[in-house]
Amino acid sequence: MTPIVKAFFDTQTFTVSYVVQEPEGRSCAIIDSVLDFDHASGRTDTSSADQIVEYVTEKALKVEWILESHVHADHLSAAPYLQEKLGGKIGIGENIVVVQDTFGKVFNEGTEFQRDGSQFDALFTEGSSFHIGQMRGDVLHTPGHTPACMTYLIGDAAFVGDTLFMPDFGTARCDFPGGSSEDLFASIQRILSLPDETRIFVGHDYKAPGRDEYAWETTVGEQKALNVHIGQGRSIEEFVEMRDARDATLAMPRLILPSLQVNMRAGQMPPADEQGDVFMKIPVNKL
Length: 287
Hints:
six-stranded mixed β-sheet, alpha/beta
């Protein structure tokens, strides 16, 4: 089965969000949505999410799922806003509890912050399945970038989040808490074991040197042959050495602190104070 896939590219965070529709019906899922956030002013905006709302409304689609491939560190999720506007259940991998435990401590959230994933409507495990109308989706646990990363295999399309990028850009970083280059290598091998014609939709694109246009769709076959980090049968030893050395040179994502505080809550803001004001925390020398 070949789903209808509509991509929405956010130029501020280089994130690709997707609306995935069953081919013979009007049910759909939304994957990795973006809530616009201006770090300097602390203001949010729904312009990116509203493009999805407009598309879904114009097509008269029924949103069954709002899926997160993982707890993003580079953008805030718009899942609650989209759920309010369009309906659907918010889903993520069950290892969100590991991420919540880790960053609940980093942000000193206290016992009132639940670390059981209860902020989400569904927690997927390896081998879980779900339906978008008559179309089945299967869930692969693909850790490495984070411990909670999931790949959603829907018909002939695999939505890999940050695990893989376009072949000319490579693979995800592994230096966040709970990340592992060894785990990432194993996860990528699982994805590359899918049929060569499987379409791969990536979570970000940064335009590799020499490429003038943003891109987000490739195939398993192209990744195996051309991926600059993992293609042509690169060994785990070569990959781990390359990935760890590269990660040591990377700066933290610009929006990592607000993103983690929001996304580990399924896109909800931290609790408001007695005056109704919401504040983000900035831990010093912890990341």
